[in-house]
Amino acid sequence: MSTRVNSSAKKSSKLNLVLEEHHHALQVCSRIREGLENDVELERIRAYTNWFQTHYLEPHFEIEEKYIFPRLGYNVRVKRALANHRRIRKLLSCGCADEKVLNLLEEELAAHIRFEERILFKEISDKKELAELEKQHQSLSFSEENWKDPFWV
Fold first, then answer.
1. What pLDDT shows up at residue 145?
2. Which of 40, 93, 101, 146 could cross-link with 151 by S-S, CB 3.0 to 4.6 Å?
3. How far is it, in rounded angstroms, from Cα 125 to Cα 104?
4. Is the pLDDT reported for residue 139 higher than 90?
């Protein structure tokens, strides 16, 4: 699976900061896969996913739930996105270093990102709304500078 952001979603939605964040999340998925394929200790991978959840994913989910989803209305696609958030949070809150859970987390997160880019965010077209959403995401930036165990290299 590629970690590249869907270019058609990028062109059509203009939610560049959100899509950039999705790109970083897809990199995390790739790193989980690499770690599992290379038999990295599961505790190291779990420590990374816990760090990612705290420093990036939860703030990202909160922005989506507070600023993006309400603008789209409470429809079947938003309900699906919220259910995806709940499943991903549940997998992250497991606290276990189980290979099956890490595999499922990687798959769920990647599938959720693709759903948002290809379906959900295409519903946002108003330029004022787009500008407001971009503004909300400016406060969130992804950086692994403070992460000291890059097991994927």
1. 73
2. 40
3. 32
4. no
Q: Which residues contact 10 (CB under 8 A, 6 or more apart)?
A: 16, 19
* Residue 114 CB neighbour total at 10 angstroms: 15
Q: What is the distance between the alpha carbons of residues 13 and 19, in angstroms, rounded to a whole number? A: 9
153 DSSP 8-state letter: -
Q: How many residues does the chain have?
A: 153
| Nearest CA among 3, 113, 95, 86 for reference residue 49 | 95
Which 3-state string (H, E, C) describes 48-64? HHHHHHHHHHHHHHHHH
Contacts of 98 by beta carbon, 8 Å cutoff, 6+ apart: 42
pLDDT mean across residues, the chain: 82
